Amino acid sequence: MKPIIFFTTVLTLSLVGYRTPTSLTISGKVYDQHTGAALVGVAVSVEGSRLATQTDSNGQYAISAEAGQFLLFSYIGYETKRIKVGKKKMLDVSLVQSQTSLDEVVVVGLGTQERSALVGSATGLTIGNRSVKMYVPDRFPRYPENTESYKGITENRFLNPLDEPLSTFAIDVDAASYSNFRRFINNGQLPPTDAVRIEEMINYFQYELEGPSNREPVAIHTELAVAPWNSQHHLLRIGLKAKSMPADELPASNLVFLIDVSGSMMDANRLPLAQASMKMLVDQLRDNDHVAIVTYAGSAGVVLESTPGNQKTKIKDAIDALSAGGSTAGGAGLQLAYRIARQHFIKGGNNRVIRASDGDFNVGPSSDGDMEQLIAKERQSGISLSVLGFGMGNLKDSKMELLADKGHGNYAYIDNITEARKAMVTEFGSTLFTVAKDVKVQVEFNPAKVQAYRLLGYENRLLEKEDFNNDEKLGGDMGVGHTVTALYEIVPVGVKSAYPGQVDPLKYQPVKERPTAAPSNEVATVKFRYKDPDGDESRLQQVAVAERPVELANASMDFRFASAVAELGMLLRNSDYKQQADYDQLIMRAKASKGTDDEGYRAEFIRLAESAKLLAGNNSLAVQD
Hints:
This protein is α+β, with helices and mostly antiparallel strands and 625 residues long. The chain is built from 13 helices and 25 strands. Strands 16-15-14-17-18-19 form a 6-stranded mixed β-sheet, with helices on both faces. Strands 11, 20, 22, 24 and 25 form a 5-stranded antiparallel β-sheet that branches. Helix 7 runs parallel beside helix 8 (397-406).
């Protein structure tokens, strides 16, 4: 009996003395110690375990750990911090930038990585039961400071309607140039001249236009007023407004996320920001939508097969698991993404590849011509292409714009999480759901009223006059509720002007005489063509513009604001036609026409214009010195 009592006593004392370790959920924010800025994509792990996570777009994290364990906070370019877990559940962490810039060891992925896909050397490390591949680059950062590329722009000139009465272009709903301009200004630089596309800056903003009242998908509006930078000239605004649709009436989506995970996407403002952007888009999906994920680095692969929109956690987990490293097989990635989209094609639905990248291709088809041929072939399948640009110093803007233009899609540059929200949430419908495709505009100017005219921007979207009626020629696409604005500067007949310039009389044909009596009181006739999303034949609408210009102060608020954006664009480009354009006057006009501005985009423009004025002044002083 005594042995039993003794055993029971020992067991009881043992159980009393034993405590099961308590797991805590530790959460907080990781930020730069010097600037206080939140750090996106910081690796947070529990030392000696397989538990790991990373900070989100706000620098926030949450992870489970036990008291006495250590948390490791690792981030490219910063010193790793090791903190012991105590009783606190909230733990904000500041990181200090590393003084080491060369031969720095960074994690590019888990498991096995082909060394041939890396530029540098690789070594292995075991943390707990996990095999981690480490990468030592030949230099850090991997790319030189400036390898960005922009397509050259030959600025539109003033034309004489006696010689060229028709102006024809495809509409452009891209807005990448504006957010890219913002990135340069916020970094204390003026953007390169060719990075400034005036039409994209104007169309970054939404304008108050009435939608179509009939069954047409697009309504057209015009407005004529005195030009801000030359009181003797007029400014014609052409505005298109696509119809709006309730979310539950939008067609089902078959989406393929094509995400660049090559080494050039390693920085925090590239892959981590792309991941946060894609997860915002996932939150907008409905049960009848589907998403697949394709990635590419040295080669392309399917990370997630087509998955219903109600499985958001599964989709987000697949996005969170991505890591960067390797070369860039962009062509192979595009081909695979299109193949997946075709396999799950929804007739009458929104079939689209959404590509997130810095635009760099260095493996396989890489030239602009190669990409254009690939997209031209694939768009015949009824699958559109949207392009999201990320990063700085290596942005291949010229290739991104080309892909979007040729792929029946749009191009957005995402420089921060606020822009991601604008593209993925605020403008979700207008970004992804097309209501009119191949939209083209053709304006005929009346030579009895117009001495010369000039289209502001759209240099990369100009068409031959015959292309307007040719349904084989591509136009631009408009999404649900979208607005598009185009501006023409007009020199009225009778105004003494250097535009369009003089030439000697022709020797072999009679000189065209300007009509002395106007056949009508119209300045111009605006025509536009479009196709239904699943149609092949275009339809025509047109409207005449009467010669009734108003004073600039009496023009609509949107007209005045759009003119301020255009004026800034001309100054940034140092346009040959800027005339009396002036920073102070455009800033004052933008302030007076800001309107309600619920999202704060117009207020931000004003701040950027003020900064651009200061930077331009500093540049001119430097030149004088």
